[in-house]
Amino acid sequence: MASSTHHLPNSYGTTAAPPPTPSTQPNPLPSSAASADVLSRLLHRLPPTLSLPTRLSPPPTTITTTTSPPLISLSPQNPTLLTDLLSASCQFGFFHLTNHSISPQLARSAESDSLSLFTLSNDQKQIHFPKNWPLGFDCDDNEDDDGTSSDSFCFDSACSPESTELSLSSLREFTREMEKVGLEVVEALSCAVGFENPVREDPTRVCSLMWISEGSPGNTTVRFYPYVVGLEYQIRCRKYSLLADSGRVSDSPRVDSILVTLGDIAQVWSNGKIKKVRGRPFPSFEDGSNNNNAHCISMSLLVTLPLESMVSPLLPKLTVNNGEEDNQLNKEDDDDNGDTSADTREDGAFKFNSFSFEDYAWRIYHERLLLKDPLARYRI
User: Fold this and answer.
1) Rounded CA gap, 81 and 188, in Å?
2) Is residue 299 a contact partner of residue 114, using CB atoms and an 8 Å limit?
3) 24: in domain
4) Contact assessment for residue 162 and residue 128, using Cβ atoms and an 8 Å cutoff
5) Sign of the C-alpha dihedral computed for residues 223, 221, 128 and 180 taken in this order
6) How many domains does the chain contain in total?
7) Which domain covers residue 218, as residue numbers?
8) pLDDT one-digit tens code per residue, 263-296
9) CATH number where 363 lies
10) Are strands 94-98 and 71-73 parallel, antiparallel or unpaired?
């Protein structure tokens, strides 16, 4: 698969999982977290077929609530953009974006390209999109309750197949345009919330992934991968299910808007100030409103990190006032479900230990244990 300017390392083969990335922790992890990461590294060395359990279904008692997330205009003429972003980030962890640069025609053409991928045979999928974790074609061999399995494709921003037989020009253009919007959101979010944006000085500090998955009633399997922000273009009136800090929610659709979710990396960067969504949104079929489109796909653009990255809070620069350092982070109280990600610790105090992005990404991708907050082990 061709790589782009912002790409993930292409060093992992198809018969062995990638080796762990050695890292030095600025803040030592608690012994329990350190032990868990040692176990993760050991499992990381196992062949893919022996690595980790692949499926845990949510308990039947899970309650889903429907909510209408804020509608935020990305227009430069919007005087309340930063205020709106701050409010949505601290209260919900997701919102709908309007007045963006993505045209409905481009989104529909990209969807057409994506749908064509699922008409290929499994052999063709493997040939055109070989697995190079997390890139390539992934087939979940474990069937869901209705006897179906879940296929997905993960592309870098170039969206280039191994073969020239397939043309994905619309999907490629759509991915590039969505990436631009995602980077705009990261910049505005850093200004609104008050953390340093690493992309300003070095664009290679982040990369983008386009994740395309199948969705159908009874088939709710989804691969999880950590990210800063996720973008899902709302092509039609369809609800999406999200696992937010406040619990399982179903968002009210807004056609031609972009559903933006804030991920676990954004929560760490903000030092726990904002709420997050665990994993990617997935089409919801709970109310039967999607019967006319019972089988659909999900196209998620994730602004994420290169595998070799370290993750840690990006506190704003300290300013000197009368000889005393003054940190400008605001304190946010959050009592939802006992979540302490935005507690009232002293301003400027780190609320997360630093950790290896590769180890973290590998663990949640294979375990899919997101009913329990995967960041809990790194909290101070």
Assistant:
1) 8
2) yes
3) no
4) yes
5) negative
6) 1
7) 31-44+66-316+327-378
8) 999 999 999 999 999 989 888 765 544 444 456 7
9) 2.60.120.330
10) parallel
